[in-house]
Inverse folding.
DNA sequence: AAGTCTGTATTTACCGGTCAAGAAAGTTTG
DNA sequence: CAAACTTTCTTGACCGGTAAATACAGACTT
């Protein structure tokens, strides 16, 4: 620890006084090297180090300059919820790769409304990435009022840059692949298709808005593909989980496999759910893919590492994160984009 | 969007003027409801909403009050590196659970030195959690100079709260278990045991400091257990990876299984590495656990979901995160802790 | 009726920097 | 050699709030 036995708080002012220069000179030593001689600057920096003054107070600097060097990433729901989702993780990894290099800090913000209830949302970040729609439109309004660059990911907002992946195309390819290779019944396990906070069959439940729910977009693709093939996936064969977890996936898969006729294929809207389905197949001694075909979505690393490896739709989560970060840092240089998805056929189909 | 056609910037001052009250009254309306009548407060809040003023500027407020409502989590290495580690993820999940509830924001900071090269580290957070040792002690010194609460996780620092898990105990239990059940050679696959940025056998490489590297602590336990059993694990049977990834684990496991005598057990210092070893066993048609026993560390969810399920040492990552957050928010109420680890014997041993 | 409380609202002095403009000293130019 | 530049450093006004002190009713004592 530096020599700070004196309780005096270190500020540009106090440091300037100690070194016998003006406050502006201290400030310039840190921010604008060209404004003073090299020797003086070196001396000042060395002295500051010795005193334990590690640079200007960021709050004061922000106040004066209006910049903070912080990008906010607002995640749907709570933060911890997102940390259970491999896709979100990979996305964040991409974001951080870029922000690390850009010397910018990352502030994580939950998208829950009540977090900001009585609280100022006029907050630190000078740019925002919204990963998935926040719980409540009022949050968006308040963000917009701040007139800062916003990039939305996995959903769109008028007048803002958005970054999406081709959910419809990927899901359709997956469904077509399954429709070609199996003649039997097909079951769907989806995430948050309907307004219900547990794993349920979708019948009798209220659909979530397809503009908001990417799962709804994927479902449309499944159903369209079936219709075009002259087949049908009845609502009684569609399950909706509340979270994309192994546990919920197991629940849904078990229920589905009790149906008769027993489904011969699962269209799963995430690899987590597909892994769960695979596990249930094993516990019921069903051969995959002979007795049961399984297709996932996302292509998380675990999909390749399991046996049999899971057929799934790849979406570039990492790239999505990198691009979102680059876009939010240079909004004027970009336009909204839709990233491609591709079907990866492996061993479960 | 609110009615902000006028370009005028909204501040307490301008808003106060518009509403014909003093700036302090606006401030109080947001921060201290008891300082003004309920009606006036309601009216002010409503007007602010209408005008699009969403509360005081956080930079200015921070400057004045000296608080920011931000906790910094500094991660070893880059941010993105940590997002590849399930344990770090689970830890962060725990942290965010608590911070969500405490209405506190989370700022993620890389532990790389060069990120702060020319930059002020006198930064926003008013408390810090250090997850793993930062790359460089100078960072710690600069953090300490700020005189803010610090909690260190997975390593210790004099005069600061620390939170560790019983790496030695867990690793020893794992090793003893293996020593009891197999008479053959034992190989170790560890993470960052030596100073080398790729997967290598540890021979001829410089050890990393055991005060800093939790892997070193685990290794000590393995070796002690062997010695106590009158056996030996030679350095030629110890591999060190640079990252705890599947890819690097595969590399190490393949090399190890080429040795003669062929190892009959793997002590892996993470479940990621154990999963990789399992995969290599499968590709070499070795039966697990008959031909090869595998023990991991951490007990990540995937360990239970794979077949065969992996024997591993459980460490409470989520709890660790929750506790770290609680500790940093109320440092005076806590003392340094070491959380227990427990061996979970499953199917790979 | 004078004195004391209470509840509301305002005044005022900072918080710790940064930037534009200005001053002092040395250098170049015509 | 004076005028015009440069270079280097200083001055002083602001950035947008907040907390403590102050002012001022009206209600309540005594």
């Amino acid at each position: 620890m530096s020599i700070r036995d004196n309780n005096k708080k270190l500020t540009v002012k106090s440091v300037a006084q100690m070194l016998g220069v003006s406050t502006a000179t201290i400030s310039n030593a840190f921010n604008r090297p060209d404004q003073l001689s090299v020797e003086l600057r070196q001396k000042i920096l060395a002295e500051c180090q010795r005193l334990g003054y590690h640079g200007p107070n960021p709050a004061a600097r922000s106040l004066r300059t209006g910049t903070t060097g912080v990008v906010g990433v607002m995640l749907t729901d709570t933060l911890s919820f997102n940390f259970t989702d491999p896709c979100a993780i990979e996305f964040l990894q991409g974001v951080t790769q870029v922000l690390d290099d850009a010397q910018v800090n990352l502030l994580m913000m939950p998208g829950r409304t009540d977090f900001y209830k009585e609280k100022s949302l006029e907050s630190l970040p000078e740019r925002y990435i919204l990963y998935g729609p926040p719980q409540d439109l009022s949050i968006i309004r308040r963000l917009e009022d701040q007139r800062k660059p916003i990039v939305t990911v996995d959903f769109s907002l008028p007048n803002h840059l958005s970054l999406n992946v081709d959910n419809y195309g990927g899901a359709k390819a997956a469904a077509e692949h399954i429709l070609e290779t199996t003649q039997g019944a097909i079951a769907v396990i989806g995430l948050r298709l309907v307004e219900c906070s547990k794993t349920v069959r979708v019948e009798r439940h209220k659909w979530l808005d397809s503009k908001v729910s990417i799962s709804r977009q994927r479902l449309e693709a499944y159903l369209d593909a079936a219709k075009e093939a002259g087949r049908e996936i009845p609502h009684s064969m569609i399950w909706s989980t509340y979270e994309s977890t192994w546990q919920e996936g197991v629940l849904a898969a078990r229920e589905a496999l009790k149906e008769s006729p027993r489904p011969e294929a699962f269209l799963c809207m995430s690899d987590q759910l597909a892994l769960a389905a695979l596990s249930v197949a094993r516990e019921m001694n069903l051969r995959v893919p002979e007795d049961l075909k399984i297709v996932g979505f996302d292509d998380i690393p675990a999909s390749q590492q399991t046996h049999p490896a899971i057929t799934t739709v790849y979406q570039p989560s990492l790239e999505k994160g990198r691009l979102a970060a680059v876009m939010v840092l240079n909004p004027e240089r970009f336009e909204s984009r839709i990233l491609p998805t591709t079907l990866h056929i492996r061993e479960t189909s």
